[in-house]
Amino acid sequence: MISAEELLKSEIPIIDKWLDDLLPAETEPPQTIHRAMRYSVLSGGKRLRPALAIIAFRRFGGEGDRIYPPACALELIHAYSLIHDDLPSMDNDDVRRGKPTNHKVFGEAIAILAGDALHALAFRNLAEAGDIRIVADVASAIGTRGLVGGQVFDLEAEDTEPTAEILEGIHRGKTAALIAVSLRMGARLAGADDEDVDAVSAYGEKIGLAFQIIDDILDITADPKKLGKPVGSDEEHNKATYPRLFGIERSRQIAEELIASAKASLGDDPNNEELHAVADFILRRAY
Amino acid sequence: MISAEELLKSEIPIIDKWLDDLLPAETEPPQTIHRAMRYSVLSGGKRLRPALAIIAFRRFGGEGDRIYPPACALELIHAYSLIHDDLPSMDNDDVRRGKPTNHKVFGEAIAILAGDALHALAFRNLAEAGDIRIVADVASAIGTRGLVGGQVFDLEAEDTEPTAEILEGIHRGKTAALIAVSLRMGARLAGADDEDVDAVSAYGEKIGLAFQIIDDILDITADPKKLGKPVGSDEEHNKATYPRLFGIERSRQIAEELIASAKASLGDDPNNEELHAVADFILRRAY
Questions:
Q1: Under DSSP, is residue B260 helix (H, G, I), strand (E, B) or coil?
Q2: pTM of the predicted model, to two decimals?
Q3: Which residues contact B100 (CB under 8 A, 6 or more apart)?
Q4: Which CATH architecture has domain A4-284?
Q5: DSSP assignment letter at A24
Q6: Which of A166, A242, B69, B115 could pair covalently with B83 via S-S, beta carbons 3.0-4.6 A apart?
Q7: Which helix (H) or strand (E) element contains residue B95?
């Protein structure tokens, strides 16, 4: 069996090709915004969300290419949220994945609109899957009860001493909601029954939260070249993070507990081997 | 028969009630963003887009309340686009519908996120209708080939002398695309056949363009109290408008031609009487 790391990596070039195809060409007017959209989406990245959707889809017997448009929609949403998060009025970040952020290159107006256009294009591609339930699931995961809500809690928590509860709320919204719905989508589109869909969602929620905790740890301990962005930016922005509240040791322990609990959500059906391996990899990753 | 003006107005309180119900309560955390969303959506407005969806729905035999969630989704999208358009890096407007714009009250970060959250909530409510085609239609209408594209063309045309073609592209994107898809949605959800759906879309495209031309004329000639915003703001921003390019007289004539053409798109089936009356009203309106 190939490792989880290799499995996730093997999907990247395929996802990148689909993303390239479904984004409007740079030569199509209005060119500026298409350049801006392509700049942020096609700038590398782990493609974790689409890859998880694809892995869940295959796990539950899904076949063929129809998973790719809605899976790529998750990456478009992720890219839109990063562009908006980086804006001067938000986190005011200048560098992302080793390159200047979208608004540093295209200006704030185009950056805001590029995010908006990616958001719309995501739903265009979600619709391709022909299942209204995944539109509802994703829309719920990225609103004020998910992604946007997490960002608001995050902004409000800057320069305060957040409780563990608030911190979990931030991470559940900003990261875990989209990761959970990625897995949920893959399972649903493969025709998994409701029980399996819910189990894989619970798994996604937990690995999503663990992913963010590891992210916060890496922001302190990682090699900036491997990470593709400066380390220490959470500290600089006075961000609410697990290491800040609990220290690095205890944070890693919480992530370990979440990964164990994620695997338990699935049960030990041998068909879950890949998802178990993915969970372990999230804990181990160094970038 | 009641007049088109009365017909459109009669839907406003019903739409407002639905919007109030489908927006998260101000008391639900994160409260700031829910307050910001409600502030912009529930600040009055003509509710033209949902009203047109409802009128088209009834025209093609649609019955009951199921049109309201997706119709209201169009108003959420309209509100999101106005919040983002008003931002300092875009049109930098301080007043909208007689009240301070969203970012003047809540700050830029929350205004951007309120727009994003309304965008997501719109798709949540579109999904309620259970028809994947309207998700695809709306997503296409508000991306770079529609709403966002129009805004980009508009930003790029500031301080230039736009051609009639560019001007039409701006208005088609910024206004006509969403109005056309509103009518399209209503017809589709009522079960209209493809020919009727396309005819009502063509009608919508034309009344949408005429609506924007009249809007530009009103920005010069209207009573600011009736309009709910300062007049002359297009002039001040050096905006590309029909009156600027063609003068007021010729602009009004173009709008008249569009309205006649819109009515012709539908044909003279007596069942189209209401839609004809709505087209005439759009030409006549003074606010």
A1: helix
A2: 0.96
A3: B94
A4: Orthogonal Bundle (1.10)
A5: P
A6: B115
A7: strand B95-96
